[in-house]
Design goal:
This protein has 289 residues and is α+β, with helices and mostly antiparallel strands. It has one domain: 4-Layer Sandwich (Phosphatase 2c, domain 1), CATH 3.60.40.10. 31% of the residues lie in helices and 27% in strands. The protein contains eight helices and 13 strands. The strands form three sheets. The chain has a six-stranded mixed sheet with strand order 2-11-7-6-5-4, with helices on one face. Helix 2 packs antiparallel against helix 3. The longest helix has 23 residues.
């Protein structure tokens, strides 16, 4: 039996201040690695900017096409998908994850242009509808994937999550996990059956309670405010299986660039065993000096 549940959660944060970051003030990087034990990499990620474009086909005005070529960034999109393997068609999970992400990008772009980003309920519903459509397409193929997606529409941001790929935000030196793992272990913790420590060591920690294409999918949309100085991290569980939150906080607090900290976190995961595919995305806004 398939079930669908949607939740829209606000995250209480101080209001964003200052202007929207320009393109050259965004420090963003993403890396993925097969790990030490896997034969294929079933993780995929995407980072892109959403824009409205004006395409000049013909005009008597000189240089008008060049002057209109630069278009304002309306939104920023980053996502991680971790294909679910362990089945007879496990190697196909990577390809299906890519297709799911691509489909979701297209739907996210359309929902941004067709909804009022100031209307949280309408915008969250549009994101959920895109996820449900993605789920339906993957379900037909008999595979599954996680999806954790960050859509920044300054000064707001929206996180959509299905599965256990995580989103963290470092703000004023404090690391907060915005997402909640959709695993059987986490469900048992919420029910009071397991402690957080026990959940980490139980086999249920690796069993998803929700996935796109799985028996159950429960997309959760979380709204938050963006601020200059925030550092965002998206990652697959290949990182968090081996690198604890304290180490992640230390790395993000001491980062010199998004690429540098992605490489450092990736190496931490590999040094600690690298038993799964590892994907790390980091982004922040750095004002021009």
């Amino acid at each position: 039996m398939s079930s669908t549940e949607s939740t829209v959660k606000p995250v209480t944060t101080p209001p964003a201040t200052g202007r929207k970051p320009q393109d050259d003030e965004l420090d963003v990087c993403g890396l993925t690695h097969i790990g030490k034990l896997r034969k294929t990499n079933q993780d995929h990620f995407l980072i892109c900017a959403l824009r409205k474009q004006m395409l000049v086909l013909n005009s008597s005005l000189p240089d008008i096409a060049e002057r209109l070529a630069g278009t304002e960034r309306l939104a920023f999109l980053a996502m991680v998908a971790d294909g679910v393997g362990g089945t007879q068609r496990g190697e196909a999970a990577s390809r299906l994850a890519v297709e799911a992400v691509t489909t979701y990008v297209a739907h996210s772009t359309r929902c941004y242009y067709s909804t009022d980003s100031a209307d949280d309920a309408t915008f969250a519903q549009a994101l959920e509808d895109a996820a449900v459509n993605c789920h339906t397409n993957i379900l037909k193929e008999g595979m599954a994937t996680t999806l954790t997606l960050w859509l920044g529409v300054w000064p707001r941001a929206y996180l959509l999550q299905v599965g256990d790929s995580r989103c963290y935000v470092l703000r004023d030196g404090k690391l907060t996990q915005i997402s909640r793992d959709q695993t059987m272990a986490e469900e048992l913790v919420q029910q009071g059956v397991l402690t957080r420590t026990d959940a980490f060591h139980t086999p249920w920690a690796n069993v998803l309670s929700s996935a796109l294409g799985g028996p159950q999918h429960a997309p959760v949309v979380t709204r938050m405010e963006q601020r200059w100085g925030d550092v965002g991290l998206l990652c697959s569980d290949g990182l968090t299986k081996h690198v604890p939150d304290d180490r992640i906080r230390e790395r993000l607090s001491a980062m010199t660039s998004a690429r540098q900290v992605c490489e450092a976190l990736l190496q931490d995961a590999l040094d600690a065993g690298g038993t799964d595919n590892i994907t790390v995305l980091v982004g922040r806004a750095v004002p021009r000096s």
